[in-house]
Sequence to fold (413 residues):
Amino acid sequence: MRRLLIDLRPLRASPEFRRLFVGSTVSQLGGQMTTFAVALQIFTLTGSSAAVGGVGLAAAVPSLVVGLFGGPLIDSVDRRRLVLAMSSSLALVSAAFAVQAFAGIRSIWLLYALVFVQNALSSINGPARRTFLPRLLGPSLVPAGAALTMLSMHLSLVAGPPLAGLLTAWAGLQFCYLVDSLSFLASLYAVFRLPAMRPEGPGSGRGPRAVAEGLRFVGRNRPVLGALLTDLSATALAMPVALFPALNAQRFGGSPQTLGLLTAALAVGGILGSALSGPVSHVHRHGRAMLVATVFWGLGLVGLGLVDGLAASLACLIVAGTADVLSVVFRTSLIQLATPDRYRGRVSAVEYVVGAGAPELGNFRAGVLGSLYGPGAAAAIGGVSCLAGTALITLTIPALSRFRTPREEVSRA
Fold:
């Protein structure tokens, strides 16, 4: 049982990682409260679901554009100072959200603008933070550290919206923004206590040539390319979230309670996968493990499309969510271990762009298929497409399944 439960050694081995884990968890919880408040405020102002959907567009555009071109910056400066600057700026954006709410400003365009700026900053802050993991823990503990990071994220996804709802009902949504801006103090303190994090080796430039150099590295490094393509296949071809309202209406009468359960099931699976991730520290073929997890993600979605009944639907989503978080843990481990430090910022930026953009494409694809064939069929088609994509990547990029933690790093595990 102890080997099955999440490996807590990174928290004991590295005080710096422990502070980052606590600070990031607090900050992500606050971030979920802002996400809740923005959607609620825009819907209250407009009564339009389309206006709420515009938040996704305001978030996606800077994530895709700034994320890719922010990679060279991460590889050319002290990453600790960069994260301090980005996190401080994000705290100011959260404070601006609070100010406009307390002032009673009724402008959705101001909210869109703040979301745009927030995600532009996050598209640099997020990839820069990822480069800390191998520097603080060393290769043998990277998978366990990635699992703890995913646990932190999924805990905030589950706990943040209900807490925001309670706070909004008690004091008003403007206090969600205020709590978020204050939550950055924990994250800033953790980053402030880190040592300098300058890239190892020669620094990169900051223009298009540096971006192209990073993309060429991804293209040459077959395990990294395979890992990114596998994630792209799993999300762009199979992301099911856009189907939940129609699926809920078709199977369960459109009850808001069941829609909430469907939405939460993936996050519950993420928590389960993170909590039972102990064995990941003993897996050294990260690419093969990622492919296996992606297969279970696809099978869970095929099941969602074929089964009937609430319990069975939730079970399929929990299986898919569990597989998804394990796939991300193995992908993160492989990419960080297979990438030299001087490229980590740019490769992490590419990973961030894939993670930010592919699910949005997948939800758009799911919505189109759902309107044509029905939500159940669309979910099953997505799962089958994911399985086919995974099989194709396995056959055409064998280096992914062959990737193994280098011998000298395995010996330290």
Observations:
- The two ends are 19 Å apart (CA to CA).
- Residues 9-410 form a domain with the Growth Hormone; Chain: A; fold (CATH 1.20.1250.20).
- The chain has a mean pLDDT of 87.
- Residues 131 and 344 are 6 Å apart (CA to CA).
